[in-house]
Structures are given as structure tokens and as C-alpha cells.
């Protein structure tokens, strides 16, 4: 399972439901990305996070604005 | 040390926790219970006289150690965050459901894994129910289930449960106020310092690895992510080796000695309720203790719900009985789930459905 680490955009949320809403919204908008467990380095909690390409940042911000999905934080990190 | 950046390290965390469980069983804990969260909360509730089932009363240092271990490591690593406010009373009810389901099956998800590793086929049957329960919870998540977000709260709030449990530990060591079984599972325990140390270390590794039985299956279902399942695999592997090495691996139904029963439907439904409620509450019984330790008052309320659920189970005779050998006649008496226990499980499952499909995420303003 050796995989090169790449810099990704990670969006964390206050609730799992927000993360699920994000997945739905991004699918509808055709924006690439996927749900992942919140990286351990970011949180000791066990929620879900949205993982996308860093260049999608603006697109993702727009989707969250439109769908009124509140983020907890936005990170750019290697995963 | 970062314990979660590779599957190998996650498996290692599972292996260490498995070794702790095996050691505690070796040094006196009921063999196939070893480190059951539900059983041990039930025993602790008994020690506090919340119920009067004489065979299951003992303030288990493991439970106290788990919460303190998680508390200490999260304070040291600055991960302690005192949070609260995510529908606490619903979580209280979910805690009760988790405990009632567990005591009808006779074990939490951790003990289910331990029983599976000892060849107890009843636990393998119950696994079906657990997976279905987690699956139902995942459907609810997909449909927008939410208990609302938690907020940062007064720093002391998250420390209350660790302090209260330290009090229970002091009471059990320094006074004779607490009850302690003289026979039955409650009387079987490893030396107190070993139990406490085992709990502390288990708590640290569980906090670091985010070990969770419900979460592991949830992550596979929702994201095809096998990280948490790797931890569980580690626990299972170690316990399997321990059981094989000590001749305790007996693949069978209706085995006296293992505290279990073979009412398949109720094993399935009991664990169905546990899996369902655990996904809604955001973690299995073990995970609730760990989250409570790192400052979540919501998880602490779930733990209190589990204590009350345990008391209800024994005060109202809801808990199942294990298959046992009658000492006089030497006959095997099959364990069973009492009628009220069956009704309670059905009510619990109904409650889960109500909670799951009536608590929806609100579009934020």
C-alpha cells in the first residue's frame, strides 16, 4: 500500500451530517473529491472530512457558500 | 509518536490492546470477558449499588483507567477539548440502548470480538446483527441524521467524569462502601494495580489510534476506509493466538463457561441495537469512554446513560443469562433472554429509528 503523499485540500466540519451534505453537493456540482476520516494529525475526533485537489479550492468555497454548509476549518496538507 | 500514519502502526496499537486484554484475562479477569466495556460498566454500577445482582458487582479499575488514560494523554498532547451541547439527553438514551442491547447479547462490541476469537459461534451470529445495525445507522447518516454540533464549553466540564471516576477508585481502595461480588464473574478480577495499569495503557492507545468497533465498520461502509478495522484486526489476532495457545479456542454454540447464550435471533437483535445506537452516538462503548476522557461532555452523558441502562437491566431482569453447568446435576442449562429483555430490545430498536429519522441536519443560516 505504498502511495506517494500528495498535497490535498482537506475540509473539516462540525458534524458528520455537514460532511455528508458536502459529498452530495460536490457530486451534484461534478466537483471531484471524496470523504475520508479526519486525518489524525488534525483531530482526535472521529468525524469525516472532505478531501479534494488543492486547485479546487475556489470551486469548493463557492459550493459551501451556495449550499450553506458550514466548515470547521480548511487545511492544505499531505495525505 | 504518530500512531495513525500507517496501517502497520494502527495494527500495532490493536495488538498492544489485545495483549493487555489477554494479560488481564490471564491474571484473573473472566477469560472471555477480559476487557468488556459493557460488562465492566455493569459491574461498576453494581459496586455503586445501582443494581443488586450480587454476582456482578465490582468497581472495575479498567473502566476508570480507560477514561483517565485518555484524559492524561489528551492533556499532555494538548488534544483535550472541553466540548458539550450536541443533544445530550438523546445521547443519554442512546447510552441506555447500547447497554440494554449489550446485556441481552452479553457483551459490548469489544467482547464480541473477544468471544469470536475464542470460537464462540454465538458471537459470530451476533456480528451479523452488529453489521446490520451499523449499516442502518449509516443509512441514517446518508439521509442527513445529526444531533447537532458540540461547542467549546467551560474547561472544567470535560474533566468532571475523570474526577468522579477517580473518586470511585478511591472509594473502592480506601473504604468498604462499595459492593464487591464474592462469587460469579464480579469476583473474578486481575490484581487492582494491574487492572488500572492495563486500563490506562489501553486508554492511551485507544485515544491515539481512535479505536472504535462501530466506527471501523462505518468507515468501511461510508468511505471504504479500512484504517480503524486494522486496529480491530490487531485485537482479534492477538486474542485468537492467546486462546489457541491456552486451549481456550472452542468453536461451538452452547458452551458452558463462556458467558453466552444461543438464542440467535436475540443475539442478532441485541447487537443490531448496539451497532445502530453506536453509529448514531458516534462511537461504541469503548470510544465513548475515550471521548469522555478527552473532554466531551456529550460522550460523558452517553457513559452515564450506559450506567443507568446497566442498572435497569439488572433491576428489571432484562439481562440475558449465560449457558451454565448446573453444579448439582451436572447438566448444561441453556442461557436465555427473559421476556422483558426481548421487549426492551424491541423498544430500544424502535427508539433508534425514531432518533435516527427525526433528527435531521438543519440548513445552517
Tell me what you see in this structure.
The complex is a heterodimer of chains A (79) and B (365). Chain A is an alpha+beta fold and 79 residues long. Chain A has two helices and four strands; from the N terminus they run βαββαβ. A four-stranded antiparallel beta sheet of chain A has the order 2-3-1-4, with helices on one face. In chain A, helix 1 crosses helix 2. The model of chain A has no long low-confidence stretch (mean pLDDT 91). Chain B is an all-alpha fold and 365 residues long. In chain B, strands 1-2 form a two-stranded antiparallel sheet. In chain B, a hairpin with a 6-residue loop joins strand 3 (324-325) and strand 4 (332-333). In chain B, helix 4 (88-105) runs antiparallel to helix 14 (339-358), helix 5 (109-117) packs antiparallel against helix 6 and helix 5 packs across helix 10. The radius of gyration of chain B is 19 Å and the shape is globular. The mean pLDDT of chain B is 94. At the A-B interface, helix 1 and strand 2 of A face helix 9 of B. Chain A: This is DUF3343 domain-containing protein.
Largest sheet of chain A: 4 strands, antiparallel
Which two protein chains have the largest interface (Cβ within 8 Å of the partner's Cβ), and how many residues from each?
A-B, 22 and 37 residues
Count, helices of chain A: 2
Query: In angstroms, what is the radius of gyration of chain B?
Result: 19 Å
Number of strands of chain A: 4
Amount of helix of chain A? 25-40%
**Percentage beta strand of chain B:** under 5%
Q: Which percent range describes the beta-strand content of chain A? A: 25-35%
Described by the principal axes of the CA atoms, the overall outline of chain A is globular
How far apart the termini of chain B lie comes to: 40 Å
Average pLDDT number of chain B: 94
Distance between the termini of chain A: 13 Å
Using only CA atoms, what is the Rg of chain A?
A: 12 Å
| Structural class based on helices, strands and sheet pairing of chain A | alpha+beta
Backbone structural class of chain B: mainly alpha
Low-confidence stretches of chain A: none
Q: What's the helical proportion of residues of chain B?
A: 55-70%
The sequence of SSEs of chain A as H and E is EHEEHE
Instruction: Work out the count of structural domains of chain B.
Output: 1
Strand order of the largest sheet of chain A: 2-3-1-4
Strand count, sense and closure of the main sheet of chain B? 2 strands, antiparallel
Pfam families (chain B): Sulf_transp
Protein name (chain B): YedE-related selenium metabolism membrane protein
Organism (chain B): Mediterraneibacter hominis
Keywords (chain B): Membrane, Transmembrane, Transmembrane helix
Amino acid at each position: 500500500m505504498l502511495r506517494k503523499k500528495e498535497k490535498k485540500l482537506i475540509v473539516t466540519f462540525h458534524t458528520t451530517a455537514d460532511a455528508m451534505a458536502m459529498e452530495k453537493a460536490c457530486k451534484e456540482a461534478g466537483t471531484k473529491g471524496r470523504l475520508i476520516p479526519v486525518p489524525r494529525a488534525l483531530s482526535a475526533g472521529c468525524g469525516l472530512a472532505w478531501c479534494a485537489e488543492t486547485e479546487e479550492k475556489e470551486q469548493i468555497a463557492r459550493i459551501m457558500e451556495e449550499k450553506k454548509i458550514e466548515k470547521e476549518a480548511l487545511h492544505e496538507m499531505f495525505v | 509518536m504518530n500512531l495513525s500514519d500507517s496501517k502497520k502502526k494502527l495494527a500495532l496499537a490493536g495488538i498492544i490492546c489485545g495483549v493487555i486484554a489477554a494479560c488481564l484475562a490471564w491474571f484473573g479477569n473472566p477469560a472471555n470477558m477480559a476487557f468488556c466495556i459493557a460488562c465492566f460498566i455493569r459491574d461498576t454500577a453494581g459496586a455503586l449499588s445501582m443494581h443488586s445482582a450480587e454476582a456482578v458487582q465490582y468497581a472495575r479499575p479498567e473502566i476508570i483507567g480507560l477514561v483517565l488514560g485518555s484524559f492524561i494523554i489528551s492533556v499532555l498532547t494538548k488534544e483535550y477539548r472541553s466540548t458539550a451541547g450536541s443533544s445530550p439527553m438523546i445521547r443519554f438514551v442512546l447510552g441506555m440502548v447500547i447497554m440494554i442491547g449489550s446485556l441481552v447479547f452479553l457483551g459490548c462490541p469489544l467482547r464480541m470480538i473477544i468471544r469470536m476469537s475464542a470460537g464462540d459461534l454465538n458471537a459470530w451470529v451476533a456480528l451479523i446483527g452488529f453489521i446490520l445495525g451499523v449499516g442502518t445507522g449509516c443509512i441514517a447518516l446518508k439521509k442527513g441524521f445529526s444531533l447537532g454540533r458540540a461547542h467549546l464549553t467551560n474547561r472544567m466540564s470535560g474533566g468532571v467524569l475523570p474526577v468522579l471516576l477517580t473518586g470511585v477508585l478511591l472509594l473502592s481502595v480506601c473504604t468498604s462502601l462499595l459492593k464487591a461480588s464474592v462469587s460469579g464473574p464480579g469476583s473474578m478480577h486481575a490484581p487492582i494495580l494491574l487492572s488500572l495499569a492495563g486500563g490506562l495503557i489501553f486508554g492511551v492507545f485507544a485515544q491515539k489510534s481512535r479505536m472504535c468497533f462501530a466506527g471501523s465498520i462505518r468507515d468501511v461502509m461510508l468511505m471504504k476506509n479500512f484504517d480503524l478495522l486494522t486496529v480491530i484486526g490487531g485485537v482479534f489476532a492477538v486474542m485468537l493466538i492467546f486462546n489457541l495457545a491456552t486451549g481456550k479456542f472452542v468453536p461451538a454454540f452452547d458452551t458452558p463457561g463462556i458467558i453466552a447464550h444461543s438464542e440467535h435471533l436475540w443475539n442478532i437483535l441485541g447487537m443490531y441495537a448496539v451497532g445502530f445506537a453506536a453509529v448514531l452516538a458516534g462511537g461504541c462503548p469503548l470510544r465513548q469512554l475515550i471521548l469522555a476522557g478527552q473532554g466531551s461532555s456529550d460522550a460523558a452523558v452517553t457513559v452515564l446513560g450506559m450506567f443507568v441502562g446497566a442498572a435497569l437491566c439488572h433491576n428489571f431482569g432484562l439481562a440475558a443469562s449465560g449457558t451454565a453447568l448446573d453444579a448439582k446435576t451436572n447438566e448444561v442449562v441453556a442461557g436465555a433472554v427473559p421476556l422483558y429483555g426481548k421487549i426492551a430490545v424491541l423498544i430500544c430498536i424502535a427508539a433508534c429509528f425514531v432518533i435516527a429519522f427525526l433528527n435531521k441536519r438543519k440548513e445552517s443560516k
